[in-house]
Design goal:
Chains A, B, C, D: Residues 21-204 form the Class II aldolase/adducin N-terminal domain. Chains A, B, C, D: It holds the Pfam family Aldolase_II. Chains A, B, C, D: Its cofactor is Zn(2+). Four copies of one chain form a homotetramer. Chain A has seven helices and seven strands. By secondary structure, chain A is α+β, with helices and mostly antiparallel strands. Chain A has a single domain (10-230), classed as L-fuculose-1-phosphate Aldolase (3-Layer(aba) Sandwich). Mean pLDDT of chain A is 93; it is low at 234-239. Chain A binds chain B through residues 33, 131-134, 191, 194-195, 198, 201-203, 205-206, 208-213, 215, 219, 222-223, 226, 230-233, 237-238, and chain B through 37-38, 40, 57-60, 88-89, 92, 114, 116-117, 119-126, 148, 150-152, 175-178, 204, 207-208.
């Protein structure tokens, strides 16, 4: 660590360290679940109790994703000078992650991938209809399409926030681009990224062979409500 | 093990221990065969000689599936207090498994997954026609569709039992939900889960490119009969 | 080895041992290339210099495929009593392998799988057209369909032999059943099984999105001729 | 090394050794990314500072790809006599690689595969339209089709060079054959091979389910320009 490394209170430093470890490890889940190729895809996690988040460096191999290589950023998406990893550039999607953290205080994690079937729906600008119970559980309805926006300003972040604010879904398919997912923490956002590809693939194949049977709205509501409140080992099980 | 841990006769305890080990290990087969993502999917096994079965805890990672974390339940699906693993909640599908064990005494194992192609047929409510010899061997005819039913009461368990009772198939596709399979033991039910996804995928691709040739009923009958009686190393080889 | 174990001349015994090792190891290639699930699929190899071949036991897990578990058979498909592995039953497809060895003396290996895309073409009874150069290299033309035949007599073996005799292709898709491949040895037949699934999948996707461009017959002939004679490290490189 | 092994200046020898190691290792990326089966596919790399390149031997298993087995060739595609590996024949595609190195001095790496979806587009002779932002980033527009050409003379190499000269894309789909990719070095060409299969697959699925939304040319231009100049850790990050 360089001489100008920032000093944080011990509890904040511990939270930073935990977030670095989580974010580094969770990139492995993107690979294990077949969501990314080469250096594509990125996971970030908000540091609990601080206006900071941790994200992957740009264009770096998945084999090099050690906790100390992750990049600590402020909520404007600027790398904190002197912190471990700061000699590298953060992911080129950092501005979009930062926008989400600034405008959605309840969000603790953000994930972006170019997973095959989610991108296929995005290329058509077509939302994924909610026709299987696992999708009702997890997303509470269709997966919405976000606006077409390209890198370089706030438009991707704004499109994510506008689409997901007040929506049950933790996933948005940005048109012609791909999925962004949010969660209570980085692990929850990774789970959403895994599940959105799973439902994108399943519903693709389902529709390809004939008409699908709609799920009644009342059933969707009951499934979503139950899953948010009951499933797993405790109230925070979705994480 | 806590003080209020139940005491069983040595042979029953040995059967419980073997079932815990089998059920824990067989979840690995779901992963290895690409049938599940994240914490989805569950395997259970009846304890031979007792009114008990063993099932996976709810919402727990596939890396944490040690035998001692499996949950021992009575045939109402209630975790046995004090038994190893009982500090966790059993799978949210436990009620459906329990219903099957109560109403189909010949069943020794139950599996549920959201495997891609099986769910795709389920989303259309369309049974899988028997057009390949491997499917005649294993299932003796088409894979049937079960009713639409959602979690919260006996309706899933009842739908499974009503569809599979007297049917050759060990697999049912619950409409808009996914496959449940049964077997003489947990391994046999896992094999059925692997094979139902395999035939769901193969027949999907077959039909996608043009009409398939039906199998004569007489050939289906001969193949099914032979496979149940001859195949493998002994009469119980299907396990 | 039991007391009634057969005695062979040392060179034959050495050839048996090598064939056992090859056949055991090559089953791993079926798994690695995604051609089989559960215990499906089988590889056999003729013992050079003897009227014998080695095949996998029936219904046995891919984790148990050690050389000493492989079964030594005569050309009628009967396990040699007392030889290692003979306490088990040979693969239920042994009669078909034996028929091929009896009627095609140039064949040194046979493979059968239920690989997804090859079975999909078989379920439609549709030969795979030769529209990619890799397929011209390897098979010299279309992959033919064999007759519908079910297990229990010589009809599968006869269908394979009648379809492949005098044909360039080392693979046949038995209608409603799946691919059988032959080769100069077991490895060559496994390569054909890998390649037939590869071309079945590629041509499936190619045609799904629009008309494919036919390959001129003259180009197919030149590619096949060159590949049989030049490719690889020596005249027997295809093995 | 044999007595007639060539002698190079130490810096050239070091560059040869590094290129051998890179080319050997990068073949593993073809396997890891599911681009090749059996012995198919080949990677080559130009030796910086010399009229030499390194390529894989013909028909050799991916398990045998040690650096010393790679073959050193001059720019006519002739193996350098006496160099390590020269007892084997170079890949049957060596002439095409050599042609590219002779005619495109800026190219430092060439890759050829038969990856499924890229070959599927090639079999229809249909370029892949640029409808997703990741494709604009990486290729700057559609992936073009090259002419039908078969092995045996310069026609494959000439087709690659004529199609890619002055084109933004580093990938060409040779009609009825498959993808060839180029790059500033072997790693860059492998990345292009991975990405071309990724976009071939994604756009296949996207179009299969309905019309895709075109990307505005202005957006493609901005994305391509930014990615070439900004992305990654430095100006040469694309490598």
């Amino acid at each position: 660590m360089s001489d100008d490394a920032p000093r944080y209170a011990p509890d904040i430093q511990a939270a930073i360290d935990r977030t670095r470890a989580d974010v580094a490890r969770l990139h492995g889940e993107l690979v294990r679940n077949g969501l990314v190729v080469w250096t594509g895809g990125n996971v970030s996690g908000r540091v609990p109790g601080a206006d900071l988040f941790v994200i992957k460096p740009s264009g770096v191999s998945y084999d090099d994703l050690a906790p100390e290589n992750m990049i600590l950023c402020d909520l404007d998406g600027t790398a904190i000078p002197g912190a471990p990893g700061s000699e590298r550039s953060p992911s080129s999607d950092t501005a979009a992650h930062a926008y989400v953290y600034r405008h959605m205080p309840e969000v603790g994690g953000v994930v972006h991938t170019h997973s095959t079937f989610a991108v296929a729906w995005a290329a058509r600008g077509e939302e994924i209809p909610c026709v299987i119970t696992a999708m009702a559980d997890e997303f509470g309805g269709p997966i919405p399409i976000g606006p077409f926006a390209i890198i370089g300003d706030d438009s991707i972040g704004r499109g994510i926030v506008e689409t997901l604010s007040g929506h049950r879904s933790r996933a948005v398919l940005m048109q012609n681009h791909g999925p962004f997912t949010i969660g209570v923490d980085a692990k929850d956002a990774v789970k959403a990224a895994v599940m959105v590809e799973d439902v994108a693939r399943t519903v693709h194949y389902a529709r390809e062979a004939g008409p699908v049977i709609p799920l009644p709205q009342e059933a969707i509501d009951r499934l979503f409500d139950r899953y948010q409140n009951v499933y797993g080992q405790s109230a925070d099980a979705r994480r």
